């Protein structure tokens, strides 16, 4: 599962040229949650800065060509030879950029295919004639140990200039990650936003009739590929959360009949209870640094929020103490605050407290009920479920202002943020049938699409960008 | 069905505000009986329910093994109290039996909150049984939130049937 950034290994490449040494690498390990405010447009602390859709870069014509190879060799990937892998890589990149409503890319189908030597010296007149403004080219090479070296270049056709490049060495099973890294590089360079494609999603796969739904823990890449079931479905599984390092998943299981939170270890496929006691525990959440787990626990009918060390062994700290139901919780990116829901006022509303439980303040005052708050990785907004008639996904500022809806359907709930805080996934339940599907929407609310999953799907949890 | 709900509304107006809250969104008190034969145990070819069994409990309760709640509510009203008294009488008659109260919510809420709400409803029923003399150690609770609806529609009538606490005795 390693992916090596090759920007320091330029000499190993046949195509190595001074350009490798010139420009700064743009692919660097990202922190789990960027705390610095990202570049925004007209940001007055409210919502205007989030409307990335208005930017002109979205109208750019981007040509994405099939990645070239120096030698057409069989590979250990599921994509065939290096030549067909080159086409598959650009297919993934093209789909990434198109499916998220970010760009309108063309190719690789229907475009000229650059030869290997052309990857670093594009035939600009050809692309100008095709009215392409941006050009993505790349190559794939197989190394003697079976690993793959993949290079990705973004050119400005009008300026006849290379804008950015990246190179990665990956194992055969990780070739799609190199494509996502390339997508991230192109997206970041053109939008000024942080990357998000090279990330994974944990969710619940659903099958069966409404009154006997089988619910299984499942994972997939951010584009729906590499899908895998982790539990058999014998015990109902709910509300997973990827750990920030992708090594574990917190989730609720009815194993042994009662709802309890388990930590599932992805390397050993073993799981353990986060706390040994007889009370039901649910709504698990990680802190941004992965060291603390938040959970909700009901004692004699009253639910409060607790935190406990993720390493295990420590004692739990009770953070809330109201007669109402205090549920869920989501840390601010710097870990100093927690946003949570409580019905202490008589109906579900959103509150913010310090991470030690002090200074609990209600922030939602816009009517209806407000639930499932999730703090953006950028820190600037809180996504939540607004219940007023229908259930809709909305966002508000951390102070509770500037509330607006992103979706308008019968039942949309449980938003989860993309690693860059620009896109939200949630699940949508169909009236009567109860069938659930995962959707995503950007912060304009306009680019909405359903994610392809092999079965029905709910409770998405988007993990951070991979290093 | 339309005429029935009209009648229900009229009854509420007459009965006053206390009853009104109970009338507003309660499920029909008379639910269809359990399918016969499913929960019974056969003995020498003849259908015979063993006294003190879960099948016996279901038959004796005649629908009163379940109590219903208003949206987001968990209080025990007079109809619930009557059902729980019937349950308590049975449980006191069979002191060796243990029971689980299953708390549920309707689909029109978020998942985590509904788990908490189901637990609160189950505890509400349990506490009432205990107040009637059932030993607390005999009764456990479990919340299914919105995961196990009994009525499958997406309408007020179905949701009213799903906001419930069901007492199940353990054979």
Brief descriptors of the model:
heterodimer; A: 467 residues; mainly beta; Rossmann fold; Neuraminidase; 7-stranded mixed β-sheet; 31 strands; 38% strand; globular; B: 171 residues; alpha+beta; 60s Ribosomal Protein L30, Chain: A; 4-stranded mixed β-sheet; two-stranded antiparallel ribbon; 6 helices; 43% helix; disordered N terminus
What does the model show?
Chain B: Residues 56-171 form the OmpA-like domain. Chain B: Residues 27-46 are annotated as: Disordered. Chain B: Keywords: Cell cycle, Cell division, Cell outer membrane, Lipoprotein, Membrane, Palmitate, Signal. Chain B: Belongs to the Pal lipoprotein family. Chain B: It is a lipid-anchor. Chain A: The Tol-Pal system is composed of five core proteins: the inner membrane proteins TolA, TolQ and TolR, the periplasmic protein TolB and the outer membrane protein Pal. They form a network linking the inner and outer membranes and the peptidoglycan layer. The complex is a heterodimer of chains A (467) and B (171). Chain A is mainly beta. Chain A folds into two domains: 3-191, TolB, N-terminal domain (Rossmann fold, 3-Layer(aba) Sandwich), CATH 3.40.50.10070; 200-462, TolB, C-terminal domain (Neuraminidase, 6 Propeller), CATH 2.120.10. Helices cover 10% and strands 38% of the residues of chain A. Chain A contains four helices and 31 strands. Chain A has helices at 18-22, 82-99, 124-129, 175-191; strands spanning 3-5, 61-64, 68-69, 104-106, 134-142, 148-156, 161-170, 200-207, 214-221, 228-229, 237-242, 248-253, 260-265, 270-273, 281-286, 292-299, 302-309, 317-318, 326-331, 337-342, 349-354, 361-362, 369-375, 382-388, 390-396, 404-405, 412-417, 423-429, 436-442, 448-450, 456-462. In chain A, strands 1, 2, 3, 4, 5, 6 and 7 form a seven-stranded mixed beta sheet that branches. Chain A has a four-stranded antiparallel beta sheet with strand order 10-9-8-31, with no helix packed on it. In chain A, strands 11-12-13-14 form a four-stranded antiparallel beta sheet, with no helix packed on it. In chain A, strand 13 (260-265) and strand 14 (270-273) form a beta hairpin. In chain A, helix 2 packs across helix 4. Chain B is an alpha+beta fold. Chain B has one domain (27-170): 60s Ribosomal Protein L30, Chain: A (2-Layer Sandwich), CATH 3.30.1330. In chain B, 43% of the residues lie in helices and 16% in strands. Chain B is built from six helices and six strands; from the N terminus they run H-H-E-E-H-E-H-E-H-E-H-E. Chain B has helices at 2-15, 17-24, 54-61, 78-93, 111-131, 156-162, and strands at 42-43, 46-47, 66-68, 98-104, 139-145, 164-170. Chain B has a four-stranded mixed beta sheet with strand order 3-6-4-5. In chain B, strands 1-2 form a two-stranded antiparallel sheet. In chain B, helix 1 runs antiparallel to helix 2 and helix 4 (78-93) crosses helix 5 (111-131). The N and C termini of chain B lie far apart (37 Å). Mean pLDDT of chain B is 82; it is low at 1-25 and 34-43. The chains are: A mainly beta (467), B alpha+beta (171). The interface between A and B is large, with 42 and 29 residues.
């Amino acid at each position: 599962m390693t992916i090596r950034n090759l920007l320091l290994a330029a000499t190993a490449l046949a195509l190595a040229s001074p350009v490798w040494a010139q420009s700064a690498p743009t692919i660097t390990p990202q922190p789990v949650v960027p705390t610095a405010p990202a570049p925004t447009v007209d940001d007055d602390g409210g919502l205007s800065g989030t409307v990335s859709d208005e930017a002109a870069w979205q109208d750019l014509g981007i040509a994405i060509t099939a990645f070239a190879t120096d030698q057409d060799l069989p590979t250990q990937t599921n994509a065939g030879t290096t030549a067909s892998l080159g086409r598959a890589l650009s297919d993934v990149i093209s789909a990434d950029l198109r499916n998220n409503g970010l760009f309108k890319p063309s190719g690789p189908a229907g475009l000229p295919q650059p030869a290997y030597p052309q990857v670093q010296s594009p035939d600009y007149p050809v692309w100008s004639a095709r009215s392409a403004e941006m050009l993505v080219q790349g190559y794939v090479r197989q190394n003697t140990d079976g690993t793959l070296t993949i290079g990705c270049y973004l050119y400005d056709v009008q300026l006849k200039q290379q804008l950015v490049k990246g190179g990665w060495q990956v194992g055969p099973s990780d070739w799609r990650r190199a494509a996502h890294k390339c997508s991230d590089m192109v997206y970041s360079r053109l939008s000024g936003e942080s990357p998000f494609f090279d990330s994974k999603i944990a969710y619940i796969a659903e099958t069966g009739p409404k009154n006997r739904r089988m619910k299984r823990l499942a994972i997939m890449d951010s584009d729906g590929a590499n899908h895998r079931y982790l539990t058999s479905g014998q015990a109902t599984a709910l509300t997973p959360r990827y750990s920030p390092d992708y090594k574990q998943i917190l989730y609720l299981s009815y194993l042994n009949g009662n709802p309890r939170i388990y930590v599932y270890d992805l390397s050993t496929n073993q799981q353990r209870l986060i706390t040994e006691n007889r009370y039901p525990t649910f709504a698990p959440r990680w802190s941004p640094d992965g060291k603390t787990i938040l959970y909700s626990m009901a004692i004699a009918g009253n639910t409060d929020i607790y935190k406990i060390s993720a390493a295990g062994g420590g004692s739990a700290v009770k953070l809330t103490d109201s007669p109402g139901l205090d549920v869920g919780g989501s840390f601010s990116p710097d870990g100093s605050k927690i946003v949570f829901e409580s019905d202490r006022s008589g109906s579900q509303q959103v509150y913010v407290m310090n991470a030690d439980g002090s200074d609990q303040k209600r922030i939602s005052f816009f009517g209806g009920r407000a639930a499932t708050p999730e703090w953006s990785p950028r820190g600037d907004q809180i996504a939540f479920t607004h219940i007023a008639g229908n259930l809709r996904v909305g966002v508000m500022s951390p102070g509770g202002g500037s509330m607006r809806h992103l979706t308008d359907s019968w039942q949309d709930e449980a938003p989860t943020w993309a690693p860059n805080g620009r896109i939200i996934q949630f699940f949508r339940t169909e009236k009567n049938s109860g069938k659930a599907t995962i959707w995503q929407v950007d912060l304009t609310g306009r680019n909405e699409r359903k994610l392809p999953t092999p079965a029905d799907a709910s409770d998405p949890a988007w993990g951070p960008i991979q290093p | 069905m339309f005429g029935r709900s009209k009648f229900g509304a009229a009854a509420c107006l007459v009965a006053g505000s206390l009853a009104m809250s109970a009338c507003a969104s309660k499920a029909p008190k008379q639910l269809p009986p359990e399918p016969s034969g499913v929960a019974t145990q056969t003995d020498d070819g003849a259908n015979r329910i063993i006294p003190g069994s879960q099948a016996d409990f279901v038959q004796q309760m005649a629908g009163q093994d379940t109590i219903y709640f208003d949206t987001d509510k968990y209080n025990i009203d007079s109809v619930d109290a009557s059902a729980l008294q019937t349950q308590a009488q049975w449980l006191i008659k069979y002191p060796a039996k243990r029971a689980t109260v299953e708390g549920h919510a309707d689909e029109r809420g978020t998942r985590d909150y509904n788990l908490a709400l189901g637990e609160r409803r189950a505890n509400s029923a349990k506490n009432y049984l205990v107040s009637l003399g059932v030993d607390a150690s005999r009764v456990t609770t479990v919340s299914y939130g919105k995961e196990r609806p009994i009525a499958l529609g997406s309408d007020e009538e179905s949701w009213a049937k799903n906001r419930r606490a069901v007492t199940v005795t353990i054979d």
